[in-house]
Specification:
The structure is a single chain. The protein is α+β, with helices and mostly antiparallel strands. Helix content is 40%, strand content 21%. It is built from nine helices and nine strands. It has a seven-stranded mixed beta sheet with strand order 4-3-9-8-7-6-5. Helix 4 packs across helix 8. The chain is globular. The relative contact order is 0.17.
Length: 202
């Protein structure tokens, strides 16, 4: 219960931060946002423009607090990944992520899911289309623990679903098949790496 209250509070804080721009919804603001997406923001071991809005230091869910957690548990503590984490549990993929020796997770944010799926389709996936949901999630998982630098150097990676993703530098970040870019990379967990991305890859 405490964990849920902490995560809920963090989500509210992030939403509030995103809504604090007032009436400055201009092309100039959009241009600044694009520039920010390519600029590194370092918070401990993680890097990316979203990291400064996520738990840090001694906060619950801060990167340093997740290093001993298996991947499925660590996902529960990253407040912008509630949809992805719920999908992992609904699909039965949590057991795989807990037992995997080395795994890289490219986890779309809640906003990314909201853009990719309307509410009805997402509910259908979570509640009744488990095979399709699992295939979708496996398209975001790569065998082996790959850092942001390793992904950028690789050029391509193959997901557990069998999809080949091209990986290109995007400023200090990495972009995957022109569909998504890392926005907070290099969560180091007990059995792999988690990279938060801004789009759904399938």
């Amino acid at each position: 219960m405490l964990r849920r209250r902490v995560v809920a509070a963090l989500v509210v804080a992030i939403v509030a931060a995103g809504c604090s721009g007032g009436d400055d919804d201009t092309p100039e603001r959009a241009a600044r946002a694009r520039e920010t997406a390519t600029a590194p923001v370092v918070t401990g071991p993680v890097t990316g423009p979203l990291c400064d809005l996520l738990p840090s230091g001694d906060d619950p869910g801060a990167p340093a607090s997740l290093t001993d957690d298996p991947a499925d548990v660590a996902l529960q503590w990253i407040p912008v990944l509630t949809t992805f984490e719920a999908a992992v549990r609904a699909s039965g993929l949590a057991r795989y992520l807990r037992r995997a020796e080395d795994v890289t997770i490219l986890a779309p944010t809640d906003d990314a899911f909201a853009v990719a799926f309307d509410r009805q389709r997402l509910d259908d996936l979570l509640l009744s289309r488990k095979r399709e949901l699992r295939a979708l999630l496996e398209a975001h998982i790569v065998d082996g623990s790959l850092s942001l630098a390793a992904l950028r150097d690789a050029g391509t990676v193959t997901t557990v679903a069998g999809d080949t993703l091209t990986v290109a530098p995007a400023g200090a970040m990495a972009r995957f098949s022109d569909r998504a870019t890392t926005v907070c990379a290099d969560y180091d967990v007990a059995n792999g790496r988690i990279h938060v991305i801004d789009g759904v890859l399938r």
